[in-house]
Write a structure and sequence with these properties.
Residues 137-244 form the GFO/IDH/MocA-like oxidoreductase domain. By secondary structure, this protein is an alpha/beta fold. 35% of the residues lie in helices and 22% in strands. The protein folds into two domains: 8-128 and 298-313, NAD(P)-binding Rossmann-like Domain (Rossmann fold), CATH 3.40.50; 130-294, Dihydrodipicolinate Reductase, domain 2 (2-Layer Sandwich). A hairpin with a 3-residue loop joins strand 11 and strand 12 (255-261). The two termini are 37 Å apart.
């Protein structure tokens, strides 16, 4: 990374809607960043993107871009099936990465990528922006301090709506390209925040179905989750819900804390309700934050840049970024097998380690490759 008084050179890989509508505004909000290049497999789209945002260089080949531009950070905004190769190429070139969700198509891919990181960097971190709003940060701090008591009961619902036209994009709704349905591509944000708040999970019992959309994957799933603290949480992920909402609720001995939003929140989306024996407590006395920072890519990016300059691992990377992916694999395994699944079962001899739908051929190919590497 450059010295503290020098700008951080950033390149974007994938010039689609999320790069245009979300990542570029977040990058431009950082005074210490200069976007120097954009890459897309569609060279014309890369050139149009560069012209719109006044970016000096447009590329269609990643290796050439990394050699020519030598960025400090690459932001990967490609569809999920392209994450692995792009991230590994960047890490091997000594470049840190911020990658869109879901991190990878499988836990095996995640672990493969992690092997290309080095102590002190480069690192890859993943977009889980809901952790970084002031409401979530305050709640997590109160849980660490124990001021609300041990969490007891929770709700984590991602009730969204995606019509048939949404799935006309070829890579959506497939195991091979998207890695899963709403658990993988939509509810992952709420579930990541659930895990960041509640800590380590110990068991998941799940069910999933394809009820209305012409997709390979599920279009709805439900789960009951147990945590090391003893807490229990209900989880729903849906793309069939016309009144859309993202809803999280955490019940403690001292209070109920709720978040109701859709794609992002600020403090106005949170409700802090005292337990009856604390009826005289205001939200502020319960611990509601005074500062009001919305959850956003901008909020996460600011902290990511700070960590990269310091040569330290950012949040939402390494084991911290892996947690929700492993949880989703266990959810899918439980739904398919009709039995509870625990974290320690997700090992390389488990098909769900290699593929979110437990495809035995994918697992067999992966194991053959691992054996060849160690032969």
């Amino acid at each position: 990374m450059p010295k503290s008084d020098q700008p951080i050179a950033v390149a974007i890989v994938g010039a689609g809607n999320i790069a245009d509508g979300i990542h570029m505004p977040a990058l431009l909000a950082q005074h210490e960043v200069t976007v120097t290049a954009v890459l897309d497999v569609d060279e014309e789209r890369a050139q149009d993107f560069a012209a719109k945002w006044k970016i000096a260089a447009a590329h269609s080949d990643l290796s050439s871009m990394l050699t020519t531009e030598r960025p400090d950070l690459v932001v990967v905004c490609t569809p999920p099936f392209a994450h692995r190769d792009a991230v590994i190429a960047c890490l091997d070139a000594g470049v840190s990465v911020w990658c869109e969700k879901p991190p990878t198509l499988s836990v095996a891919e995640y672990d493969e990528i992690a092997a290309h990181e080095r102590e002190g960097g480069p690192y890859v971190s993943y977009v889980f922006q809901h952790r970084f709003g002031s409401g979530a940060r305050a709640l997590r701090e109160h849980i660490r301090a124990g001021t609300l008591g041990v969490p007891l009961v929770g709700v984590c619902h991602t009730l969204w709506y995606r019509d048939d036209a949404y799935y006309e994009v070829p890579w959506r709704g497939t195991w091979q390209s998207e890695g899963g349905g709403p658990a993988m591509g939509h509810g992952i944000h709420q579930m990541d925040m659930m895990l960041a708040v509640m800590g380590e999970w110990t068991e998941v019992r799940a069910s999933a179905a394809t009820l209305a959309r012409a997709v390979e994957t599920e279009d709805v799933s439900m789960a009951l989750v147990r945590f090391a603290s003893g807490a229990m949480v209900s989880v729903i992920n849906s793309v069939l819900s016309p009144r859309q909402t993202s809803y999280l609720r955490f019940d403690f001995p001292e209070a109920t804390v709720e978040l109701s939003h859709l794609y992002g929140y600020d403090n106005s989306n949170w409700t802090w309700t005292p337990a009856p024996h604390r009826a005289d407590h205001t939200p502020e006395l319960l611990g509601a934050p005074k500062e009001n920072e919305a959850s956003s890519h901008t909020a996460q990016l600011g902290l990511l840049l700070r960590d990269l300059r310091a040569g330290q691992r950012p949040e939402a990377s390494g084991a911290d970024g892996r947690r929700v992916l492993a949880f989703i694999a266990a959810l899918y395994e439980s739904a398919a097998g009709g039995r509870p699944v625990t974290p320690e079962t997700l090992t390389p001899d488990n098909p769900y380690y290699h593929s979110m739908n437990g495809d035995p051929e994918t697992a067999a190919r992966a194991r053959t490759g691992e054996e060849a590497l160690h032969a």
